[in-house]
């Protein structure tokens, strides 16, 4: 029987939006998207979510339980929204690492945080979520906000996050998910595939990157599937919280 994940040259394939591409090419294609959108990423987040992303991130911070002296890893930290708040919460005795695989996003995040006076307890690391370059049992909290859907091997990334967490440490995954009602889902489809590329074209002159982002959301595992992936990786007490009718979900798991 043929493996549907293989192409004609027997190289494994994966999705890039709705396209099927060789696994070896996905990271470069995703990198092109984020190199393109990095400069106006914050503006587009506000436009496309109507500012709601700030509320979703605030809830993530509240549920993280980050406190003074903690070590926190913010994966796919991008322009540093979560890192900025975590830096304040952990204080001078704590540590926050903003990690992102994309050099352009990391540079924008570093410059933005330095401009806001965030320094001292924050470091910046270019890192692949699937192969995190940190010691075992190192962090109290790991977060990834709107980044997991762009990872090629999500199971590998979740296991890597488990490895770097201390026993009792918490993983929080904030990501677009599946709307809870058919009516909302229909509206969201129209919004995603018509308004998002149009806004991308008007504001960044890049409709294709925002078409990919819309497609990548649809290809991401739904709430129950992602919960099962976290349990399979070894997390315990895994829960998720739907926000804005399930358009976004926050998953939380504990390392035993």
What is the topology, as strand order, of the major beta sheet? 5-4-3-6-7-9-8
Radius of gyration: 18 Å
**From the helix content, strand content and strand pairing, which structural class follows?**
alpha/beta
Shape: globular
The CATH architecture of one domain can be named as 3-Layer(aba) Sandwich
Write a brief caption for the model.
46% of the residues lie in helices and 23% in strands.
Description:
There is one protein chain. By secondary structure, the chain is of the alpha/beta class. It has a domain of 158 residues: Rossmann fold (3-Layer(aba) Sandwich), CATH 3.40.50. Helix content is 46%, strand content 23%. It contains nine helices and nine strands. It has a seven-stranded mixed β-sheet, with helices on both faces. Strand 1 and strand 2 form a beta hairpin. The longest helix has 23 residues. The N terminus is likely disordered.
Strand and helix map with partners:
Blueprint (H helix, E strand, L loop, with lengths): L12 E4 L2 E4 H15 L3 H9 L2 H13 L6 E5 L5 H10 L4 E6 L2 H13 L6 E5 L12 E7 L8 H11 E12 L5 H23 L2 H13 L3 H11 L2 E8 L4 E7 L2
Parallel strand pairs: 3-4, 3-6, 4-5, 6-7
Antiparallel strand pairs: 1-2, 7-9, 8-9
Helix pairs in contact: 1-8, 3-4, 7-8
Labels describing this entry:
Ubiquinone/menaquinone biosynthesis C-methyltransferase UbiE, methyltransferase, disordered N terminus, alpha/beta, Rossmann fold, 256 residues, EC 2.1.1.201, menaquinone biosynthesis
